[in-house]
Amino acid sequence: MKRTTMLVGLVAAGALALSACGGGSNEPKGDSGGPGGKAAQGGTLQVLQNAAYSHLDPARGFDGGVNNFYRLIYRTLTTQGAAPGAEGTKIVPDLATDTGKPSEGGKTWTFTLKDGLFFETGAPITSADVKWGVSRAWDPEIGIGSPYAKQLIEAPATYQGPYKSGDLATIATPDAKTIVFHLKKPFADFGSVVAQNTFAPVPKGQGAGNQLDSKPISSGPYKVAEYKPGASIKLVRNDKWDKKTDSIRAANPETYQFTFGLDGATIDERMIAGQGTDTDAIAGTVQAASVARIQAPQLKQRTMTGLGGCTTYMGLNTTKKPLNDVKVRQAINLAINKQSVRDADGGSALADIATSIQPPTVAGRVDYDPYPSPDHKGDVEAARKLLTEAGLANGFTLTLDTRAQPKMQAMAVAIQQSLQPLKIAVKINTIDTATYYEVIGTTSQQHDAAITGWCPDWPSGQTFLPPLFDGRNITTKGNSNLAQLNDPGVNAKIDEIAKLTDVTAANAAYGDLDKQIMELAPVVPLLYEKVLMVVGSNIAGAYLHDGFSGGIDLVSVGLADAGK
Q1: 314 has which bridge partners?
Q2: pTM for this one?
Q3: How far apart (Å, rounded) are the C-alpha atoms in residues 447 and 400?
Q4: What HEC string does 371-403 produce?
């Protein structure tokens, strides 16, 4: 899933393990007060963020922060639960009456819509609208978000979405409440796939071009009342949403006010001070410089910590010379001083050093280090030997893409310095955060390397390694395989695992596949980041959701006193 957003969508850049000093946790605290206490109905929830959301169009956005936001304005056939821990990652019905009925051995899936579903316009939500929304995923300009619909649903090779190609016959709508998906091959977990943003309904005939990026059409409990791109979003209640049809969204606040473009240090100062409307605020990143201040006893009840469940890594473009040589990629893996990268991120309190691709939270993950070095500070001599064997003893130049955020730029500099002893000159290319994933996901704009991250879309190994390394799914836009790895052995192993019906066996097989992929060194695993955040003193109903990069679940949070 979700490329990890770090500063976007209430995901902290890292965390401090506060148990020794009595800090908070990601568990709700019942009715006893604190961020996990019972939320009241009403009031305005303030959300302070450094960067704006990538897209408001559900077919375009695909990161942990915007996925979390989407649940306020969009509904899908199924969705993840609303709870901390494992309960939150369970797939439950949303627009549909259940999580789907498979037939033909799992190659065909049928869903039935609930009664009483409406868009914000008052128009009923029908199966044709769901089909229209899903079909948009094939549009080469619009469908740059979640890739699963295109990867799994049968479609002609020339199909380019409903605006250009018309009807997609492999998605049937025999009546207004029934939708049937015909897949390329059996897929036992398709009930989880339809929780992806691309399965949000769009009124048939609408949503062309940038329409939904500027004015979404809500199917959820809130609608967009005001949107100033790059600056703010105001959400108000959607009076056409019926709580009786929705067991997931508490819809506590009357209004959500999102403010973008704030400096990270400014956000920290405001959240720590907790004055005025900031008592009703939640935010994301805690800067490394603020960590010591967060330990203050008076902030105990306002801190939340937990694992992010994502891997931050550097993708190496295997189609670019000399990175097309596996020895060069292995040399880079050996040379990177991950301690300095972690220091740039904020230190050991904010992240663990990564060795494998899959993070510790993924079932079946194997703990191993394919490119070890003393204290993770890099093995320059071993790396130099490989470069000499590749005929590059005198080094080369590469361009590294990173986001326009101080922490990410600092990590890029740490990588740059790690490779200098090998005479590898790293040119850092800084890209605006709001458009970063769209740019690096466009193969024609991708450079040699990019710092990014990945989190599972739902609790399955299927959503970690295949999206990043299945070479048959490389696309010109919205591409998740940043390494552009297309290795027959890896592809074959992915197919082999996909046939397993035992989830435990499949997860174990993905752990082995992690090792197989890292022998090819298409990426450099850098960090497993943690979460640390401070919330306003009037915040309630807050918990960290494992399905949204460890961020606060927006559908449940609210105010303790709505009239305060």
Answers
A1: 451, 524
A2: 0.82
A3: 7
A4: CCCHHHCCCHHHHHHHHHHCCCCCCEEEEEEEE
Contact yes or no for 65/8 (Cβ under 8 A)? yes
Amino acid at 453: G
3-state secondary structure 441-462: CCCCCCCCEEEEEECCCCCCHH
Which tokens is 101 given?
A: 């009925």
Nearest C-alpha neighbor of 316 from the set 479, 525, 524: 524
User: Exposed e or buried b for every residue in 492-503, given b needs 16+ CB within 10 A?
Assistant: ebbeebbeeeeb
Distance CA 536, CA 252 (A): 16
136-181 pLDDT per residue, tens: 999 999 999 999 999 999 999 999 999 999 999 999 999 999 999 9
The Cα 248–Cα 274 span in angstroms is 29
The region, left, alpha or beta by phi > 0 then psi within -120 to 50, assigned to residue 425 is: beta
Tokens matching residue 128:
């044709």
> Which residues, at least 6 apart from 463, have a Cβ–Cβ distance to it below 8 Å?
1, 456, 457
Find how far residue 350's CA is from the centre of its chain.
19
Give the number of other CB atoms < 10 A from CB of residue 130: 28
* Residue located via tokens 């400096």: 263
Q: Report how far apart, in Å, the C-alpha atoms of 60 and of each of 112, 196, 252, 307, 394 are.
A: 25, 11, 27, 27, 42
Average pLDDT rounded to a whole number, residues 193-218 = 97
Within 10 angstroms of residue 326's Cβ, the number of other Cβ atoms is: 16
Rg (CA), the chain: 23
Give yes or no for residue 11 having a pLDDT over 80: no
Query: Shortest CA distance to 285 belongs to which of 488, 554, 6, 500?
Result: 6
